[in-house]
């Protein structure tokens, strides 16, 4: 496909966060510097012309999708049916919307925490923790964003916290994961890739007494320079995704030298563009090259 002289890119956001973040503005500015027209709107906007008229729709802040999951799927499929190009590709995003995708990556040889997906049932959770011999486990909805519904549960306290778990997880299923304590001290490492090429990485350290590293929990965030062996493990995850994404964030923790995958984010991940002065430019260049193909 010949390069467009002035491609139009539409950023899909949401009503709670209707403007690009400070980090994303670096990407917007770089796109405009390279001749693109950039617009944005909530994915739920009544007027969908900003998306239907775009050369590429980019899912950059659809952070409420889990509250209207079927509507979100329908919106994505509607764009695809109308011939609108979406990044990341709709089929890949659909695969990524339910965290059970981690099981398919584990089956392909990627190390993930011990885990299972359960119906939203208190006894099923207790029985699974007993079966594994776990005193603690991380529970979360199979569809969620920004740390919504993520909780560390103690086996002996399931009954007293169950109503809060059920309220935050419904209407989704329950993902139960092994708790790996090194996250408290070493945090999470997030590897960011643009069109298959490594760009930069971030280390997120939870606050004292916390294990969650989502922005709502105010972790310490810093640039991270991975060793070659660390990066190779993240690349292995990327190469096992069903399709190559335009952008991806591979999140995990290190258990010794072994990378344990927590998420492979290809829907609407924050990309920590503020941690590398050239990251926004690299993302813009990759996006324009994607359009030109």
Helix content: 25-40%
Radius of gyration in whole Å, from Cα? 19 Å
The CATH H-level superfamily of the largest domain is ATP-grasp fold, B domain
Q: Which class of the largest domain in CATH terms?
A: Alpha Beta
According to CATH, what is the topology of the largest domain?
A: D-amino Acid Aminotransferase, Chain A, domain 1
Number of folding domains?
A: 3
CATH architecture of the largest domain: 2-Layer Sandwich
Mean pLDDT: 93
Structural class: alpha+beta
Element order, helices and strands?
EHEHEHEHHEHEEHEHEEEHEEH
Count of separate DSSP helical elements: 10
| Count of strand segments | 13
Largest sheet features:
5 strands, antiparallel
Judging from the principal axes of the Cα atoms, what is the shape?
globular
Distance between the termini: 5 Å
- The low-confidence parts are none
Q: How large is the share of residues in beta strands?
A: 25-35%
Question: Going across the major beta sheet, what is the strand order?
Answer: 11-10-9-12-13
